[in-house]
Design goal:
The chain is built from twelve helices and 17 strands. The chain has helices at 44-51, 99-103, 113-117, 164-167, 173-185, 200-211, 227-232, 248-255, 270-278, 303-307, 322-334, 353-361, and strands spanning 4-10, 19-25, 32-41, 66-74, 86-89, 128-130, 133-135, 147-151, 155-158, 193-196, 217-220, 237-239, 262-265, 286-289, 311-314, 344-349, 367-371. The protein is α/β, with parallel strands linked by helices. The protein has two domains: 4-171 and 340-371, Quinone Oxidoreductase, Chain A, domain 1; 176-317, 3-Layer(aba) Sandwich (Rossmann fold), CATH 3.40.50. β6 and β7 form a beta hairpin. Bound molecules: nicotinamide-adenine-dinucleotide, ligand AHE and zinc ion (2 copies). Nicotinamide-adenine-dinucleotide (NAD) binds at residues 43-45, 48, 172-173, 176, 196-202, 220-223, 226, 241, 266-269, 272, 290-292, 315-317, 360, 363. Belongs to the zinc-containing alcohol dehydrogenase family. Class-III subfamily. Its EC number is 1.1.1.284. This is S-(hydroxymethyl)glutathione dehydrogenase.
């Protein structure tokens, strides 16, 4: 097989709009797969990396990690997928063999993590180039391209009747939020929950909390436009920290007779992470960090908060093992257990992808889905 030409949105430099380019894509090598991306969501993490705040950010790169597509070709030795399979690329792969996969304790497969973080395939090179200049991969997925190459361990095979332009959101946002509730926090019936940040991630936490039959579900955002949809998805209380002249953690502790059982930070703001921890109930409350904070930022609290029983934890891709567990999320969506339409506030062709970033920054979208 020869190289192909494809279309992609290229991030040439931090802080600059993406540029639509014709890109050369080398054929999939051993263990790799060529995927035609049908649709991709735009997650805040793409904007985070584009902003230059990501310590692993590399340029020029093809961003995007919330996609869905169809296998067009496979490299030597590929056995996990075949041409024609419908797939969701996984930024958290699942090799099934590494210490992490075998631990039974985490979804953070490390088989290809080093090269993934360096913007290249496991053999240390990129498949993307423009006029001979290599373009970096991103999160091992690079879904802002009509065609991408992905290691086979980084593909979840999904049913062919799943609508790719919707289930692409399960490639990151919705799975991350729902999974954080069930796998990381393990919210139980009647538990009190606080969700900070009502974007794609926070709203998916709401879906998970409602499904877990949590009791009170407090949704917090500084953009009140998010409150209506939060209520639709199960929030019992919606609050804006700007309406109070005391720290929001104190407001929540007062509202809940001592604090919540679980809180989720879905913003990436280290000050809010502190509030999310400190609104937890003394003795047992757990706060789950989902938001991604910029280079050099650190979290802080009085150690006494932990001494007195509050727990700080984190969650990546909702603790979900992509190849073995993501197909089940797709099936549950197909069975009508939850819906995705509410999340898709905007759709657009690849050419208009920068609008998706503008809408996100203006607080006007939940998810934009880009089609090719
Ligand atoms: P988003 O931009 O759609 O939503 C963020 C929300 O936070 C917005 O509604 C915004 O109004 C609100 N917000 C901002 N500042 C606030 C503040 N000070 N107080 C209260 N609300 C505030 O983003 P998203 O796509 O939902 O992603 C959320 C975060 O989760 C990002 O940091 C993203 O990088 C991260 N993320 C992490 C994972 C993971 O696996 N850990 C996966 C996906 C996304
Ligand atoms: N590259 C950043 C960290 C970015 C990060 O935390 N990514 C999350 C997924 S966000 C998806 O929207 C993640 O899965 N992290 C685990 C991992 O191995 O990257 C940095 O700070 O260097
Ligand atoms: Zn994401
Ligand atoms: Zn592994």
């Amino acid at each position: 097989m020869k190289s192909i030409k494809t279309r992609a949105a290229v991030a040439w430099a931090a802080g600059e709009p993406l540029k639509i380019e014709e890109v050369d894509l080398a054929p999939p090598q051993k263990g790799e797969v060529l995927v035609r991306i049908v649709a991709t969501g735009v997650c805040h993490t793409d904007a985070f990396t584009l902003s230059g705040e990501d310590p692993e950010g590399l340029f020029p790169a093809i961003l995007g990690h919330e996609g869905a597509g169809i296998v067009e070709a496979v490299g030597e030795g590929v056995t996990l997928v075949a041409v024609g399979d419908h797939v969701i690329p996984l930024y958290t792969p699942e090799c099934g063999k590494c210490k992490f996969c075998l631990s039974g304790k985490t979804n953070l497969c490390q088989a290809i993590r080093n090269t993934q973080g360096k913007g290249v395939m496991p053999d240390g090179t990129s498949r993307f180039s423009i006029k001979g200049q290599p373009i970096y991969h991103y999160m091992g997925t690079s879904t802002f391209a009509e065609h991408t190459v992905v290691p086979e361990i980084a593909l979840a095979k999904i049913p062919k009747d799943a609508p790719l332009e919707k289930v692409c959101l399960l490639g990151c946002g919705v799975t991350t939020g729902m999974g954080a509730v069930t796998n990381t926090a393990k919210v139980k019936v009647g538990d009190t929950v606080a969700v900070f940040g009502l974007g794609g991630i926070g709203l998916s936490v709401l879906i998970g909390a409602k499904m877990a039959n949590a009791g009170r579900i407090i949704a917090i955002d500084i953009n009140e436009d998010k409150f209506e949809i939060a209520k639709q998805l199960g929030a019992t209380d919606v609050i804006n920290p700007k309406d109070y002249d005391k720290p929001i953690q104190e407001v929540i502790v007062d509202m809940t007779e001592g604090g919540v059982d679980y809180s989720f930070e879905c913003i990436g703001n280290v000050n809010v992470m502190r509030s999310a921890l400190e609104c937890c109930h003394k003795g047992w409350g757990e706060s789950i960090i989902i938001g991604v904070a910029g280079a050099g930022q650190e979290i802080s609290t009085r150690p006494f908060q932990l001494v007195t029983g509050r727990v700080w934890r984190g969650s990546a891709f909702g603790g979900v093992k992509g190849r073995s567990q993501l197909p089940d999320y797709v099936q549950r969506y197909m069975d009508g257990e939850f819906e995705l339409d509410t999340f898709i506030t905007h759709t657009m062709p690849l050419e208009d992808i920068n609008t998706a970033f503008d809408l996100m920054h203006e607080g006007k979208s939940i998810r934009s889905v880009v089609h090719f």
